[in-house]
Specification:
Nucleoside Triphosphate Pyrophosphohydrolase, single chain
């Protein structure tokens, strides 16, 4: 099986520290130089279930080079050269968990810098949609809805970089409150 972290022919969008497009990065020949950042896009699907907020996590394949057999955000990855952030999220969600999401329903949370990446984090309301996920590209083995109240116990299963990401964890807490308020459950 081909290593799923190889990206033949791809060029990823790079940014400067002001968030301006800077050029392109060949991910197979990239050396971090503290001047440029790789553009990343991530989405967390959420729903209200029995009065509690649940977030969808994906279980990464054991065949992946990076963080194999660990849990990660619902979908996400790098932004391709000249691709918009929203197009990247829509593409990654379709590729990784086999569902189409609507651009207009993506809810922006934050853009922040983590190590050599500029991460654009969004949330997406999965309410009233069927759980019909598919994993055709062999990057994801399964998905799981995790109640926010059980997130602490679930953290040891998440890839280390994400489990230790204070900004990401703060956004989950913030959005738990927003979602409860949205559905008048607070």
């Amino acid at each position: 099986m081909k290593n799923k972290m190889e990206h033949p022919g791809e060029i990823w969008q790079e940014y400067d520290f002001n968030g301006e497009k800077f050029g392109g990065i060949d991910p197979n020949n990239y050396n971090y130089d503290a001047v440029r950042l790789m553009g990343g896009a991530a989405v967390m699907l959420y729903r209200l279930y029995d009065g509690e907020v649940e977030f969808l996590f994906q279980h990464r394949s054991k065949f992946l080079k990076g963080n194999p057999d660990r849990w990660d955000v619902s979908a996400g990855g790098h932004i391709n050269l000249d691709e918009s952030t929203l197009d990247a999220i829509i593409r990654e969600t379709r590729e990784e968990i086999g569902v189409n999401i609507e651009r207009k329903k993506l809810e922006f949370a934050e853009t922040y810098i983590r190590l050599k990446d500029m991460i654009n984090l969004y949330f997406y309301d999965w309410e009233d949609r069927a759980d019909e996920f598919s994993f055709d590209d062999q990057e994801v083995e399964e998905v799981k809805w995790v109640k926010y109240s059980e997130l602490g116990a679930f953290l040891p299963n998440i890839k280390q970089l994400l489990a230790e990401d204070e900004v990401f964890l703060a956004r989950l807490k913030e959005w738990n409150g927003k979602i409860l308020e949205k559905y008048n459950q607070s």
